[in-house]
Amino acid sequence: PVEQYWRDNRLNMIHEGTHGIQAADLLGRKVLMEGGRGLKLLGDRIAATIGRAAAVPELAPHAKALGAALERVGTATRAAWSTGNPAEALANAVPYMQAFGHTVIAWMWLDVALCALQKGSATATGKIGAMTYFFHYELPKIGAWLNVVESRDPVCAQLPEEAF
């Protein structure tokens, strides 16, 4: 279930050390590995779910919102690395990871709702309600996070270590 993935993901941050290390690893290494192959494969899987959900009237608006989020993450990834300078790219890795994670969780919720509807699950109404909540209250947050990434805001990178 989605809750288990979320809890495990939160524990991974503790195991790895810090939120910032996880974010730098995601934006600085994982999305770039093998020429971005893993990121593309993930995007393809998300797009497949979007395509299936778009055909279901009840889920079509959510499919559209997830498609926009996925596109926005791609745009932010390219913007972060537009100069090829790792220090500049990673200056806003934390908001990037937050947006990336919210996009993946939105995908999981859409897939859960799609499966529940297709199987005629008795709990489909609850799953769709939880998904809708996430799409209405959580997914919009990625806009603010990705604005920072796309603008390549330098405030974090410009502060000297002594400031901390």
Structure in words:
The protein has 164 residues and is mainly alpha-helical. It has one domain (2-154): Butyryl-CoA Dehydrogenase, subunit A, domain 3 (Up-down Bundle), CATH 1.20.140. Helix content is 80%, strand content 0%. The chain is built from 9 helices and no strands. Helix 4 (60-80) packs antiparallel against helix 6 and helix 6 (93-119) packs antiparallel against helix 8 (141-151). The mean pLDDT is 92. It holds the Pfam family Acyl-CoA_dh_C. One of its GO terms (molecular function) is oxidoreductase activity, acting on the CH-CH group of donors. This is Acyl-CoA dehydrogenase. It comes from Variovorax paradoxus. Residues 44-159 form the Acetyl-CoA dehydrogenase-like C-terminal domain.
Summarize the biggest pleated sheet. Answer: none
Structural shape = elongated
CA radius of gyration: 17 Å
Measured by DSSP, the beta-strand proportion falls in under 5%
Return the CATH architecture: Up-down Bundle
Distance between the termini: 39 Å
Determine and state the CATH class: Mainly Alpha
Using DSSP, what is the number of strands?
0
Helix and strand element order: HHHHHHHHH
Q: Roughly what is the average pLDDT, rounded to an integer?
A: 92
